[in-house]
């Protein structure tokens, strides 16, 4: 468990009566993380509102916590200066205590039990990690203008429409979902890394118009036709393994292409491989 003290000092400054952290934060594992972040010896030590309000970063990895996984975030709303919360591999499901944290910019909750993102609406999040959660619905992220990095891999997502206006996104991981339609992502103006492995995409053509895309991972989809990617202006790395492809020659139109991954693909059924290599593309993964 890595714990960060933003302004650790055991003595309570003015600002409210000091109480044991474990009385303010009911979850024992979370209370231990909060106490350490405040520079206190344990969760039985007293902290004032000012002590808690000085914490800017909180790290609480359920895999390494001696007290087991965090199950509730109740009490974290008292950390009014919190800008980063890193709590992977826990059993958190309710994000309501985060709703009022107006400085929260980084939130990592990989491998938890989060399904409802509505408490995150309006928060100034720039980096959000929610992979391996049963999220499903991304609607609460509609209209986000601050997110630059979003990870929602293996999160039961089917509709990426709510991300259509996420104009600040640079890195997006949607691997391992059940996405079929990628057209809402076509207009993202700053997206440079997009991971869509292991979905159900048959038509990748809308992604050929993403103006800043450098890395595109489409491994393990249902793609048979790559002509729509031929106009990608900056694409450098393209992963297309485990797709029912036959003709790669349209990719000769991707002048910027450097690396093409074709893992789990039968080279005997492909045309265009040697032409791409002759054009300077590194073709990898073929037996």
Automatic annotation (TrEMBL):
Gene3D superfamilies from the UniProt entry: Ribonuclease Inhibitor
InterPro entries from the UniProt entry: Leu-rich_rpt, Leu-rich_rpt_4, LRR_dom_sf, SDS22/Internalin_LRR
Keywords assigned by UniProt, alphabetized: Leucine-rich repeat, Repeat
Entry-linked SUPFAM superfamilies: L domain-like (SSF52058)
Pfam families (UniProt xref): LRR_4, LRR_6
Stretch forming the signal peptide: none
Highest taxon, organism lineage: Bacteria
PROSITE patterns referenced in this protein's UniProt entry, alphabetically: LRR
Protein name: Leucine Rich repeat-containing protein
Organism, scientific name: Geodermatophilus aquaeductus
């Amino acid at each position: 468990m890595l714990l960060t003290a933003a302004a650790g000092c055991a003595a309570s400054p003015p600002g409210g009566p000091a109480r044991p952290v474990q009385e303010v934060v009911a979850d024992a594992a979370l209370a231990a993380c909060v106490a350490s972040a405040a520079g206190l010896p344990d969760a039985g030590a007293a902290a004032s509102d000012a002590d808690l309000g000085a914490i800017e970063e909180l790290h609480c990895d359920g895999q390494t916590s001696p007290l087991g996984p965090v199950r509730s975030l109740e009490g974290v709303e008292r950390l009014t200066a919190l800008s980063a919360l890193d709590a992977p591999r826990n059993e958190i499901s309710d994000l309501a205590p985060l709703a009022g944290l107006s400085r929260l910019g980084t939130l990592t909750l990989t491998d938890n039990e989060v399904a409802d993102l509505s408490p995150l609406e309006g928060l100034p999040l720039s980096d959000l990690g929610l992979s391996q959660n049963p999220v499903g619905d991304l609607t609460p992220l509609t209209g986000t203008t601050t997110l630059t990095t979003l990870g929602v891999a293996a999160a039961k997502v089917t509709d990426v429409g709510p991300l259509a206006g996420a104009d600040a996104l640079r890195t997006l991981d949607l691997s391992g979902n059940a996405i079929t339609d990628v057209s809402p992502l076509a207009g993202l103006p700053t997206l440079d890394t997009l991971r869509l492995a292991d979905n159900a995409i048959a038509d990748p053509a809308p992604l050929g118009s993403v103006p800043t895309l450098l890395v595109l991972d489409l491994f393990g989809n249902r793609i048979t036709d790559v002509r729509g990617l031929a106009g990608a202006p900056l694409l450098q790395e393209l992963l297309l393994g485990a797709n029912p492809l036959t003709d790669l020659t349209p990719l000769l139109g991707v002048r910027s292409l450097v690396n093409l991954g074709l893992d789990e693909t039968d080279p005997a059924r492909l045309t265009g491989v040697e032409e791409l290599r002759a054009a300077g593309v590194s073709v990898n993964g073929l037996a």
